[in-house]
Amino acid sequence: MTVLTQILKNMLEHAPIIKSTKEFTATRNACKLCAPLGASIAFKGIRGCVPIIHGGQGCATYIRRYLISHYKEPVDIASSNFSEEATIFGGGANCYTALDNVISQYKLEVVAMATTCLSETIGDDVNFYMQNYRKDTELKNLPHFVTASTPSYQGSHMDGFHEAVASTIKTFAQAGEKGRHINLFPGFVSTEDIRQLKQLLSDFELDYVLFPDYSETLDNPIWGTYKRIPEGGTPISQIETCGSAGASIEFGTILNQGSLSGRVKSKNLSPTGAAFLEKEFGVENHRMPLPIGVKLTDVFFNTLEKVSGKEIPAKYKGERGRLIDSYADGHKYIFGKKAVVYGEEDFVVAMTTFLDEIGIDVVLAATGGESGKLEEEIRKYCPERWENIQAKNSFDYEKIHDWCLSNKPDLFIGNSKAYYIARELEVPIIRCGFPIHDRLGGQRIKHVGYTGTQELFDKIVNALIEFKQDHSPVGYKYM
Amino acid sequence: MNTFIKDRQNQILTKGKNDAAIACGKASVAGSVSQRACVFCGSRVVLYPIADALHLIHGPVGCAAYTWDIRGALSSGPQIHRLSFTTDLKEKEVVFGGEKKLYHALISLIEMYKPRGAFVYATCIVGVIGDDVAAVCKRVTRETGIDVIPVMSEGFSGTKKDGYKIACGALSKLIGTDTTFKAPEHSINILGDFNLAGELWMLSEYYKKMGVNLLAAMTGDGRIDAVRKAHTAQLNVVQCSGSMIGLAKEMKEKYGIPFMKVSYFGIEDMSDALYEVAKFFGSDEMMQKARMLVKDELSKLLPALQKYKQELEGKKAAIYVGGAFKAISLVKALRLIGMKVVVVGSQTGNQDDYELLQELCDEGTIIVDDSNPNELAEFVKQTGADLFIGGVKERPIAYKLGLGFCDHNHERKEALAGYEGMLNFAKEVHASVCSPVWQFMR
After folding, report:
1. Which of the four CATH numbers 3.40.50.1980, 3.90.226.10, 3.30.70.100, 3.40.190.10 does domain A324-470 have?
2. Which of A103, A352, B265, B373 is a good FRET partner for B73, with 20 to 30 A between their CA atoms?
3. pLDDT tier at A270, thresholds 50, 70, 90
4. How many CB atoms within 10 Å of residue B163?
């Protein structure tokens, strides 16, 4: 501990230098991941799909390991195993071998290939490879093919996620007579969130396409025998009908629509899946923040009323009422507490809005994302108090750490990676979002809707009560 | 079996049925979901525990993010190794070069954290865009006065094993640079122990009791200055032969330091590791002390193991770990607690390792190199294993199929080496195999 304290002291002494060092260019404990990871998650939301990462072996293995530690599930992601030859002469041969092996090994419906920094930099064209493969292969009953361009030097894992979603929609969605069904693009939420959203759409008696649906593929029940491809996922036949849907609902307002930070080659932002459907097929898109908290969940429910033509079912009115009732029961324990919120941009926007409506002061809202839009969005959804919220794009955990040493927050709300900072400051951390690597059940954390908010609210209030109780000289039996 | 990848058939054998030599040391087949990682991973895991060094990963964000605080390698002092630094390359640098960013990153990080040395890891993309990492490192060394060592570990340039070699090359640059130090009598280096859950501390305590001085551990609880002195030791004791044997061979050639391969898992191998060192120094007194120590430890350990052995007798285990040498020790350790090994494999074993395994295992045991989830799941089913020993990536496979699991990889939090470790191992295996939860799953 003494050495840790020493390091801490050193860092404190040097803190002002960091701020004044303009040339400081290292990321320290990144608060973001690389694009192929996001693409892999989105592709896992297609039924019968095995993602292949076109790059070195490490990319697939590291991403699998990272996802497995969160979902506690087998996550099969194949790799095209780039070698030195592939790097010099192109990854075509590796791509074909990978396709052969994946197709013959797994009985799959879809092959989804995400690129990497390596394959993109040497100029591999995976779409071209896919076309050639389809032409030349002797295999029968080929699966569907889809690709996503996800070099890790462009954006974060969220850019990869949205790119994979958009690419899948562009590849499969078809025009058709307007149907009564709707599309829901929930973005990067937990598997429990997805299950809850599906229930909710059913309760509104809506026909829907929810994509990507990894609620089962990344959170399967126990198996009797090993399943090479886990059950669940959005079927391609459904994705095809996205083009004829009555409307789309898309969670997230930043998505992949940020700045072109550092981009050179492709100067255009790619549209999201829902934006593409609106432009190509005239499917009206309702874009809104993740429904966390009463205000944002109301926005979602109001939209559902509109697109379904049905009133909110009594069940949800009850949930909303109980949630607000609990706000009254718990408000005093949280009022004015200073919170640090961090993670993906759209997660941070929604979580900040929720905390703002219950009287917690978000003092720092930080993300590793680089859209440059975080502050603007927070200003939009927290119009009264945004000036007190430090909204930081391109932040890493050590920047959060440095900031916290002089600003002493009362609690952390976000994924498990800031645990080390919370531990050092001896304040509670409420684990939510992605990843949760040091606890069980990260995939089952509910965030969205009135019940998701209820769980978060209870956890936050109880964490603060527990903190007070633990630090009280006598302890007490009533709150 | 017929839906396994065809090209892998000669990497799988069953003792008693097809005893031909196993094919190993091959690159993974494209399209397989190999449990292996890449060259960078190999270098990174070996050097990671050096706690007073700055580890800067030159590349886009992923490689650093996925290896942040990834090992349970403890340090008794500085903790710089637990931070994840990356140049976080963007498209701009990919097009115009990342050397400038690398230079500034190094200068500012060294100023801020005052490390005793720095390792700069080159990732895939650096190899492609042609940054002169070595030149930048040289310049920073000149300007800051600390050794900044390039680790050219581009992921595509081989297998994880090649990454080990590259890491050993980096260590080799440091070894011998302390020219004034004189090692005391009976000094050894331990190579290939990474001080997971404090294991190295336990081992160095054993050696200390025998009168053996631990000079440099590479790389558990490692320090730059200790590595510099490593050439003055009289003996290199090498564990996890996969990663460090190359360095031991090089040190023998360069400095005339003999080496011996040991394993610290299981009581037979652990005790041998002590006796062999005593034998090497030719000291009766030391041997006497080693015997006393072993006797003392065993008199506590063996009775404590009994209770676990009784309940585990006849249960079947599958092993799939990184290095084959560890697999060999595990086979023996499992026998000690009454269990039978039915599947054993590794990511990076060599011909010698697999021959040893073939000799050691019972008839019918499946032996496999560089396996994947499909195969492992199938083997487990075929053999009716009760326990799987592996790393994080194997854990969900075991649990999904309803069998016990023991984490024997570099993320574990339990010390499994030494005598104390053997007891922990038995406890952990017992807790998993004998849990009542499996009644709902099989």
Report:
1. 3.40.50.1980
2. B373
3. confident
4. 30
